[in-house]
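anyone seen this seq b4? input:
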Amino acid sequence: MKRSLCLVQTILSLCVAFIVTKSGTAWADTPKHNPPPSIKQVGIVLADPIAVNNADSDFAAGCGRWLFFYLGGQPQFGSTSFWQSLERGRRELQKPNLQLSLSEAKQLTTWIGGTHFGVGTLSGGTRQTLRYRLYSLPHATPIAPEVTVSGTQAEIVAGLPALARKLSTQLGLASPELPKQVDLTPQEITQIGSLVYIKNLHDSHIPLKPVRDLAERSPLAGIALLGNFPYRTTEETQSLAKTLPKLAPNHPFVWGFLFEKARNLFNQNTDSIKTSASRY
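predicted toks r here
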């Protein structure tokens, strides 16, 4: 399992210039850290934070997926796998989600050809703390101290861009290309977190219209929805797939989902892919 199916990897890596080299064990602090990696060699897996309180699991998953979408989706991190590969790895681990321990995250990252991974936790009550720490393969060596954001859920959501910036810097990216703010409420982040592992959205308890409305302005919500539509030819899939490139025109995760779910729209966006390729 690399970035996606071999055909997907070949086409997208050529289009977006993602031709790069691909090359966990305790939370405990260590006095030594690895030097910053070569940017184009970075393939990052960011596990969902483990929520100490089960009631916060969806919020934790939403925060983790926001961080992963914008951190791992930076084109400079050329070895990061598409999320389809993560789903296969999750099934291999027989996990209901991607709330992973250090050893599980190490195993998953090794399977899909990544170079680095991050594991985290969400703890607390009314005021909470989100923690992440990054590790490098092959020995699950911490590359820097953990990063944290604390406060109410609203304050944690507001602090996600700064957290993503710190993680990007630890991975060697001096000028991260990240949103300055999160245009989602804690309730919407929780809603997105609840979508990630649903097998068939039509059989879930989640009302569809609010989620579809959210996907009109959030590419992360759009990908969560797109991953749950059962077949690429449905009218709903096509409609959603038309919106995603407008919301995130340079995002490799978006192109990966379009290739798998709406091949015709992928083929119609080659000019945008060429623009990304010329820039990166």
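The first helix runs from residue 6 to 15. The chain is about 45% helix and 10% strand. kinda curious what u guys think
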